Sequence to fold (292 residues):
Amino acid sequence: MIAGTSLAAKDRNKCVRPEIDGTQTALRLTGRDYISCSSITTFQRCPLKYYFQYVVGLVPEFVPSSLIFGTAIHAAVESHFRALLEGACAPSVHDLMEAYQQTWKEESSSPVQFGKGESAESLTDLARRMLEAFLKSDTSRPEGEIVGIEEEFRARIVEDCPPLLGRVDLIFCARAALHLVDFKTARNRWNEAKTEEGLPQMALYAELARPLATALGCRTVRPEWIIVTKTQQPVVQAVSAQLGPSQIARTRSVVRQVWRAITTEVFYPTPSAMQCATCPFQTACRTWEAGP
Fold:
């Protein structure tokens, strides 16, 4: 009886243990041993776009001008805070425009899809107005000590999921709080619904950054957005992300369910007039056919 039990135990030990954290599945599907906040959002909006972008790795047919514009504005703002971090004088708008134009040049090597009435020149004029408004605002001079710019976090914070990767634009300490700042460009000021839409990502950032807050002696983590509007007279808006335990628990649950959906490898289109117009995989989508 004992011998039989022992042999059975040995046989079980030879079996491949079931994967519990999703890392190997992530590697097999995407070639990366983690998931990102942006990939989760992409799957929620359109599973087929997730498939084209992260599984197949298709080369985009074009790059939306809004994506390049946002990236270039981010680069300019990053150069501003990097100068402050290094103890240098705050850059001028001319300096920030140089960073903007350099990034635009680098990111526009693929065909660019402009919106109605847009051109590289009109967007350059808009960028200058937005960066001037940013430099005049209090958000360009954060209170406290800057401790990170474009800081990358990676940790397993959701059960049964691969490690989560997140990147925060600006981190600073002030009044015993660790502030996580995400910069956004938007057509208009954010309203309550738009803020609500962004809470899940901020909840993940807050969880990822919690060990850093503890290490720095900060009692709380305060995620917030800085939004600069793409209007004739740009407005700089600071919005705090109000997160409670229920929001964090719900976000963890959503990520877990999205990951489970991804692992089933059932990818399908979700047509949307707003999303499809700027999707860089339109031709691939039109010719796609689901397998048996």
About this structure: The domain at 143-258 is CATH 3.90.320.10 (Lambda Exonuclease; Chain A). Residues 1-18 have pLDDT under 50 and may be disordered. The radius of gyration is 22 Å.
